Amino acid sequence: MAKIRTLVVDDSATMRGLITAALNRDPEIEVVGAAGDPFEARGMIKALNPDVVTLDIEMPNMNGIEFLEKIMRLRPMPVVMVSSLTQAGAEMTLRALELGAVDCVGKPTTATGTAEALAEVAEKVKTAARASVRTKADAPATPARRGGAYLPSGDVVAIGSSTGGVEALLTILSQFPETCPPTVITQHMPATFTASFAARLDRASGAKVQEAVDGAPLEVGKVYVAPGGATHLEVVRSAGLRCRLVAGDPVSGHRPSVDVLFRSVAQAVGDKAVGAILTGMGRDGAQGLLQMRQAGARTVGQDEASCVVYGMPRAAQEIGAVEKQVSLSSIGQSILDLASARR
Question: What does the record say about domains (predicted)?
Fold first, then answer.
């Protein structure tokens, strides 16, 4: 099996060396070059034809966002962004994911963090190599009007996503009106990025989108995004339906886990729920979505053609958790239709 040919782009010689060494330790990856700035990288892309590029966001002469825009316009290819774990870094990373970067990894800041981040970057590169690269031109157009056909029905919506989920969730929530059903979301994302991501979704949606906090009541017109990092997001009954943040080990390889969220919705909400599983690598969410369907909830999965990575939806489809598959451009309205169909 051919190795994944990877180009490392970072202005720090130390970081280039660390990333290169970490990637070369993986038997499935071969680093074919390392560039210190976008101009050097441009020549290497032409000469070496890599399968994947890891790209630093903050560089001299031309930042990573500007270079990514050029890559996606002239030679679309899988790109993994390497970003500082700051608010500014988070906002730039989200912009990169909107432009077509497949995934992101936080730049390590401590010795412990270095080992964890370098192990993660190899997994991200392998995922990127299998991804369907989507440029801005490929992305579904944001609807001019946010769906007004929905009236509150008492249903709750639960959504799970991973690689490619930034674009997918922006597309879906741009179709949500101010009266959307209470919606809970688990998106696999570094801890420092989720607050900025919730704010970005809030600007795109008719609904109020916020990072979930422990004990927050689920209310019509509000969307709650699981914080990355130390906890799982659950829905519980306690004087109504509420968010609960629970510390614990990763489940299905992730914290927060989509499986944990979906299982809690199956138990707390039952047949008054709609579940949607979106683009992402692996199986997180498949079993939880099956429990939702068995509890009487309506369920949808993103179809293969519109996924960046058709992993999580495929796993859910294979075990019978998905009632119907829908293209990304149609999922938002499909969720609203299912949530309002039983008023």
Answer: Contains a C-terminal catalytic domain, and an N-terminal region which modulates catalytic activity.
Is 284 marked active-site?
yes
SS (H, E, C) 15-80: HHHHHHHHHHCCCCEEEEEEECCHHHHHHHHHHHCCCEEEEECCCCCCCHHHHHHHHHHHCCCCEE
Residue that the structure tokens 């008023």 belong to? 343
Q: Which domains does the chain have, with CATH numbers?
A: 4-129 (3.40.50.2300), 156-340 (3.40.50.180)
- Return the bridge partners of 7, or none: 33, 53
Reported as a pLDDT band with limits 50, 70 and 90, residue 190 is confident
Known active-site residue 232 = no
* Count of residues making up the chain: 343
Q: Say which of 51, 56, 174, 188 is annotated catalytic.
A: 188
CA distance 266 to 133: 33
DSSP 119-152: HHHHHHHHHHHTS----TTTSPPPPSS-------
pLDDT, tens only, 1-25: 799 999 999 999 999 999 999 999 9
CA 145 to chain centre: 24
Angle ∠(169,82,121) on CA atoms, nearest 5: 90
b/e sequence 259-285, b meaning 16+ C-beta within 10 Å: bbbbbbbbebbeebbbbbbbbbbbbbb
Helix residue ranges, H only, the chain:
13-24, 38-48, 64-74, 87-99, 111-129, 165-173, 194-204, 258-268, 286-294, 312-318, 328-340
Kindly calculate the radius of gyration of the chain based on its CA atoms and give it in whole angstroms: 20
Q: Which of 284, 303, 330, 334 is catalytic?
A: 284
Active site residue 162: yes
- pTM of the predicted model, to two decimals? 0.92
Q: What is the pLDDT of residue 145?
A: 45
